[in-house]
């Protein structure tokens, strides 16, 4: 039985994803919320039916990559270009305000720590994990709306800013181990330049050999190969793998194969990989024993993280002439923190920049942000539709 334990894990995860998604839909909530909560209940925090493993982690990584690839396929390139200035302002607001709120909240709750710890915690809060938001917007069929496109553009920008800030701080702590900031920026620029060049070549080959790619699912295979290679290349160049996947989707969205690729990739993604990703978020949470001091710290820092994103990104949206309702939607859509925040926090823990108590509070913040966002987004868009009808 032990040899095939991974199959039993998959059975449990797929069942949890379907049951959780069904219950969430019955409660008029996005299915992603039910899948995350289902993973939390089935995982080590509660029932212990399934535990995190390298296999499940790898499957979930494929899930988030395919999810962002689909998001790219469904992006209107003209709308994305026109939202460039707005996305930049939203990203800057979504970086600066959470950074200040996070550092100030930690200083208020834990005075006397090293100054670098306050700065580093602020940096942890800068990145946005849009995978939760993307799935929620897809469930509501709002991914292509003005707010959805701006959220995606802003999330890419604030991830890049976050990478640069982490590089600066780790370089200060360990000059020998930290990469040069200039070198990091050059690699990021290099990724986008090379990716654009490859995209142009691939686009021409795809159109010239359309008949070849249309045979025997070669188009789906070519799309997946291109997507995974882009994700690997992005990660190697210091950019998140999901950005490489999203960029690949945008490339395919400009071809006449767009609908075909989207249909086939969605069948693969939503049958297995994407549900695993969302359930895995809950499974991966293994909370340590709580004290009242840790509860107050975690809730206080989580409040600063969520409110900071809503105010910062919302203010950037208002500067870009979005309506109050759209600004709130964008701010709420930028709230989730997940893999990027955990990676940055884990790096800080390993380097001795932050302590175990702060790391635990980050886990709580990630968990609460992933649960709160779908509910809040659904409410914000529902109110907006009611106002339009009125």
Tags for this entry?
single chain; 390 residues; mainly alpha; Na+/H+ antiporter like fold; 17 helices; globular
Description:
- Helix content is 79%, strand content 0%.
- It is mainly α and 390 residues long.
- The protein has one domain (2-389): Na+/H+ antiporter like fold, CATH 1.20.1530.20.
- The chain is globular and about 65 Å long.
- The termini are far apart.
- The model has no long low-confidence stretch (mean pLDDT 83).
How do the helices and strands line up, and which of them pair or pack?
Elements (H helix, E strand, L loop, with lengths): L4 H22 L4 H12 L11 H20 L3 H6 L1 H26 L5 H10 L6 H9 L6 H28 L7 H28 L1 H5 L3 H19 L4 H13 L4 H26 L8 H28 L4 H10 L5 H12 L5 H34 L1
Helix pairs in contact: 1-2, 1-13, 2-13, 2-17, 3-12, 3-13, 5-6, 5-8, 5-14, 6-8, 6-16, 7-17, 8-9, 8-15, 11-12, 14-15, 14-17, 15-17, 16-17
> Which structural class do you get from the secondary structure elements?
mainly alpha
Radius of gyration: 21 Å
Per the CATH scheme, the topology name is: Na+/H+ antiporter like fold
Identify the CATH architecture: Up-down Bundle
Helix coverage percent: over 70%
| CATH C-level class | Mainly Alpha
- The termini sit apart by 60 Å
- Helix-strand pattern: HHHHHHHHHHHHHHHHH
**Shape by Cα distribution:** globular
In short:
By secondary structure, this protein is mainly alpha-helical.
